[in-house]
Structures are given as structure tokens and as C-alpha cells.
């Protein structure tokens, strides 16, 4: 069985290979290691191999891991899960980024609850690109631009871009189509807000298509930490 360090190494090589093919610098595609359900020891193993960006999906679990790893202030913590308004306070207190903002109420609460003296929370707006009922996310371009304007005006948030999770059952062509739609939305957002620089798309199963379409951040869980047991917390 491969170690976490070996899996990180091989993911970086895959990313570098795709970037080379596209005439991009590998530094243009960041790797977010998605550590949900995995123990602190696994995160530390990845950290020791040089990984600094970690993504968590569950509020309580994420906050506990962040506290347990306080001695490593150079870790950048991304909240990437569905977020209910009664849990925003913990997220605002502990995370550096939130990738799953999809409505004004959540954004307002995150801004109000960001502790004084903390850097602004870095925010991505989640797009429900495959229009799935089971997924959160903004449903269309008009709603996206309305939300972007509101988020951009909140004092303790910085709007940095977009995140999406396409339907799981797409073939590679369909993946590319969806990712290129996302890239168009991203370009339009960037034209309006110059600080927008992050397009978070691509997971273990669809990373090549995402990078080809212009992803700037891939979110890898299984490919780095191995398969996960299912769990129920929302
Ligand atoms: C779990 C999760 C990932 C990682 O998924 P893998 O298929 O394990 O790579 C990425 N993004 C989000 C939003 C997730 O919830």
C-alpha cells in the first residue's frame, strides 16, 4: 500500500504533467488535500510531506482538527461542506477559506461572526452546475452575480472565486463541458472583480478534465488519503 507522502507525490506529478501539456506553470493549479473523516495523524503525515492546504466538510470535526493542529499556523484551512446558518460561528472562528457560500444569509453571518483581528475570510461561491436537487449552490448566472455583489460588499469577507461539484456520473466529455461552463462564469466574475483568482473544480475522479478547462485548485480526498468510511453528520 502506498503512503500518504507517495500519493501526494504522484498527484503532484499528474498535475505537473497536465500543466506541462497545457503550457502552464504547475504553480497555477493548487492542490487542496480533503481530509474529511481522516484522523489528525494523516493530516500531519501530509503536512510533513509538504502539503499546506487542507479541506474539511463537517463543521465540528473540522474545528476540532484545527484546534488540535494549532501548532502548525502555516496550514491553510478550507471549509468545503454544506453550511447551515446555526453553524457559521465555528466556521468563521476557525477556517481561513469557505468554498461553499451559496446564499446571502450565510455570507452575512460569516462576516459578522469573523473574530476581530482575524484576516478576512476568503470566500468562493458554490455553483450548482449540474442543477442537482441534492446539492447546494447558486442555480444560475443572474443569481451568481447578485450574490457576488452582496458578498463583495461585506467587510470581513474577500470574494476569491467559484467552486462546484458536478454530477458524479458524467463521462469525460460531459465533465469537460460542465467545467468549461464553470470557467466561463469564472472569467465573467473575474472581469468584474479583479481580486477573483480561484476556480476550485476537479476531484479525484475528474481532475484531468477540470485542469484542462482551467481549474486553479483541485480538491483531492480519496487520491491522497484513501477511501473513506461513510458518515452522517450534516
Ligand atoms: C469529499 C469532497 C472532495 C474530495 O472527493 P474525492 O472524490 O475523495 O477526491 C472534494 N470536494 C468536496 C466538496 C468534497 O466534499
UniProtKB/TrEMBL annotation:
Gene3D superfamilies reported in the protein's UniProt record: Alanine racemase
Protein origin, superkingdom: Bacteria
First and last residue of the signal peptide: none
One Pfam family per UniProt: Ala_racemase_N
Chain positions with N6-(pyridoxal phosphate)lysine modification: 36
Coiled-coil regions, chain positions: none
Keywords tagged on the record: Pyridoxal phosphate
Name under which the protein is recorded: Pyridoxal phosphate homeostasis protein
Native organism: Bowmanella yangjiangensis
